[in-house]
Design a protein that fits this description.
The structure is a homodimer of 335-residue chains. With 335 residues, chain A is of the alpha/beta class. Helix content of chain A is 33%, strand content 22%. The first copy, chain A, is built from nine helices and 15 strands. In chain A, helix 1 packs across helix 2 and helix 5 packs parallel to helix 6. The radius of gyration of chain A is 18 Å and the shape is globular.
């Protein structure tokens, strides 16, 4: 077969795109968490002078993207596609950011899986020679997500112990060509799994099977084991989903251990009272653009598998009694 | 430059994917319009036994996709990616359709531009050798869109004369390899233009500049003129947007004439009282999968430019005083 594929679900790049730059912007709460020193910019409040949380969210994505562009050294004229998406209805945060930049724009919807989805599709567009450089980014905002998906934010609704806290944050990368720097060497686009979970306060549990499926397929397709990676990190399974996912992998005969972690577990500490951890498109975006990219550049990580996870329901589908379809998309990055 | 690009914004395929099959499903009103005979299936009511309009919309997309798969003769195992999106919040129609199929799934959001966006991205994944076959589809439903974007559907709100009627319809194509059949030879991913239009009852007016921009860039990139196409057809500008777009093109020195039309103008007739025409992701999807594919197969059209158009606002952004960002994505198809 002539296609650049391995196994059933993984694509392998013949000219792996280099991550020329990354940039992360987070809100005040994320800026007090354990990863604070890894973020490029920390906002002192959740609106940063904007009239609404939604406008602030779009501005945050613009800042992250502008930061990635500036630190890449690439001219804006040399960026051929912008790929972005977010949690807002009709992905308005991304659309209004795309309006400001004016790049040819591919809008994505993968909920919290958007960062890895964008990097995967962007890598195919790069390696396929359709672009010189590609801008990828995503964002989420606690307050805009809260009122869209759950309750009026000011209501301060009591949260279940399995619930996760939507990250206020935006992360962006520039994919390009270069001799040095971390490269995206393969990608596994996930398929939707839905084991019937209907509890929107347990999205980690809903997403765990889909993330496990993508990790299993990735490893099988490339005939690798977890120990071939310094880090396998899911997007936002949180504590509940991470332990479920680990259990599924172990029962499937995958010897996964300390190298497996979750961005949603890392971004806040226990004192921040977020229950099962973090979620949101911004979660894996800022952990990847921050800590993971730092450690790849420093040579601490040589090979990482980022598996951003998405819960693909809506409030309407939940009200209509539907369960939560979930997905995980994976990209392998090598220093 | 090594990339498969022409000019600033257009990608040209070295091994143009063949459209192996297409399938369209529409609602009863579309089934009474002038294109009725070109659709593969016409539903007799808007719910078709489902509990809600949203569930019916997802079912309609599944039917269109299943129809495209069946008539392509391709085995499901040979489909490497499904690309889909729709107007529903969090693109639930596509997500629940993707759940039923289980293909590796790339969710898109381009509002009514989704059909051309999916075909453009799908073509890059095909021509770049990342897939053997790609399934592309999109849908919209009048009643689910009405209550999400405007008023309770049963309210029967009076509509402005510039307003358009969301199509109840789903269209799908399979991209693959083959010796015969219509091929996607190039694609132009649009950029967002926003001239400040805030009237959500005039989306054709809001989208006209972006569609004109994409047509201009496509023609300039490939050094072509409108007469090189048998048909240049926008997605859902409607009567107001189409005449505005024509005016912009003529003032820009593009001699566009009878070859320029709009799916949103063609799908209903005057007696159906839809005011400025049709809109919705399903609009350009069913006109393309129906009439245009028929005429490409029959050799009546040799080269067509489909420019699906999208208005990328949300009710929230409109309530917050934002104007409507718009985009047009183009794919050139040759018999």
């Amino acid at each position: 077969m002539n296609v650049k594929r391995a196994g059933n679900q993984t694509v392998v790049f013949s000219d792996p795109p280099v991550i020329l730059s990354s940039y992360s912007v987070v809100g005040p709460m994320e800026g007090k968490g354990p990863l604070a020193s890894t973020f490029d910019r920390i906002w002192q409040d959740n609106k940063q002078g904007e009239e609404s949380w939604e406008k602030a969210e779009s501005k945050m994505l613009q800042e992250a993207m502008q930061g990635a562009i500036t630190s890449s050294g690439i001219l804006e004229d040399e960026i051929d596609f912008m790929l972005a998406g977010d949690l807002m209805n009709q992905i308005i945060s991304s659309n209004y950011a795309a309006r400001q930049f004016g790049f040819p724009f591919i809008g994505l919807y993968g909920a919290c899986s958007t960062m890895a989805l964008g990097m995967a599709v962007g890598s195919m567009l790069m390696d396929g020679q359709y672009a010189r450089n590609v801008l990828v980014g995503t964002c989420s905002h606690h307050d805009s997500a809260e009122r869209q998906f759950r309750m009026p934010t000011e209501h301060g609704n009591q949260r279940a112990m399995s619930a996760q806290w939507t990250v206020t944050g935006a992360g962006s990368v520039i994919l390009g060509k270069g001799k040095t720097g971390p490269r995206i060497t393969s990608a596994t686009i996930g398929r939707i799994l839905d084991y019937g979970e209907k509890d929107i306060s347990n999205m980690g549990g809903a997403m765990a099977p889909a993330v496990a499926d993508t990790i299993l397929n990735h490893l099988r397709d490339l005939q690798r084991s977890p120990s071939d990676y310094d880090l396998i990190i899911s997007g936002d399974l949180g504590a509940v989903g991470l332990s479920l996912c680990k259990e599924i992998l172990l029962k499937s005969g995958i010897p996964i251990g300390q190298e497996f972690s979750d961005c949603g577990v890392k971004i806040y500490d226990q004192s921040q009272d977020v229950h099962a951890g973090a979620s949101g498109c911004g979660c894996s975006a800022v952990v990847f653009a921050g800590e993971i990219m730092q450690k790849l550049r420093q040579g601490i990580f040589r090979r990482v598998l980022l598996v951003s996870s998405g819960a693909l329901h809506s409030p309407t589908s939940a009200f209509q009694g539907e369960s939560i379809p979930a997905i995980g998309h994976a990209v392998a990055i090598e220093a």
